[in-house]
Structure formats: structure tokens, C-alpha cells
Design brief:
Order of helices and strands: HEHEH
Strand content: 5-15%
Distance between the termini: 20 Å
Number of strands: 2
Largest sheet: 2 strands, parallel
Number of helices: 3
Strand order of the largest sheet: 1-2
Radius of gyration: 17 Å
């Protein structure tokens, strides 16, 4: 779980930012997150300030604001349930 939190996540974000800006020729101006903690810490906040990135956070306890991701999560969960059922695996999986 090191990837989800802390310095490892921060280093992955910096690599992602460089790649996107190089490939697209555009700068990241804003990051939107759901207050989950992955992008809300002092390391990220300092980085956002130093690089002119605005951090927008969704309202607390409102997964509806995460539209695309919530639909994708639901789709993956449904696919997993179908595969579990199809192959006769125990339901607790």
C-alpha cells in the first residue's frame, strides 16, 4: 500500500506530471481529489504552491462528485461478481 500514501505516491505524481506535460505540451493547472488523503498532505500542498497548481477537493462524503471513477468502480465490482459466479467460486471472494 506504499503507492497509495506518502512519499512513494508523491514521486509517482511528479513522474506522471512530467510525462503528461511533455507528451501534451500543456501544464497541469488544477488537481481534483476526493479528500481521500492520497493528495492531501504537507508534501503535496507545498508542491502545489511551488508549481502554481490549484488543488480542488470534493465536498466531504459525496462520492457522487466522483462520477466517472465511481461508475468505473461499480463496473469493476459487477465484473468481479460475474466472474465469481461464473466460475463457482465462494461468494466471500
Amino acid at each position: 500500500m506504499d503507492f497509495l500514501f506518502g512519499a512513494s505516491n508523491f514521486s509517482h505524481f511528479k513522474i506522471f506530471r512530467k510525462r503528461v506535460e511533455k507528451e501534451k505540451g500543456l501544464s497541469i493547472l488544477r488537481i481534483r481529489s476526493d479528500r481521500g488523503g492520497e493528495f492531501v498532505n504537507q508534501l503535496f500542498m507545498t508542491y502545489y504552491d511551488e508549481n502554481g497548481i490549484k488543488h480542488e477537493m470534493a465536498s466531504p462524503r459525496t462520492p457522487q462528485q466522483n462520477g466517472v471513477i465511481e461508475r468505473r468502480n461499480r463496473t469493476l465490482q459487477e465484473m468481479a461478481r460475474i466472474m465469481i459466479s461464473e466460475y463457482g467460486l465462494p461468494q466471500y471472494l
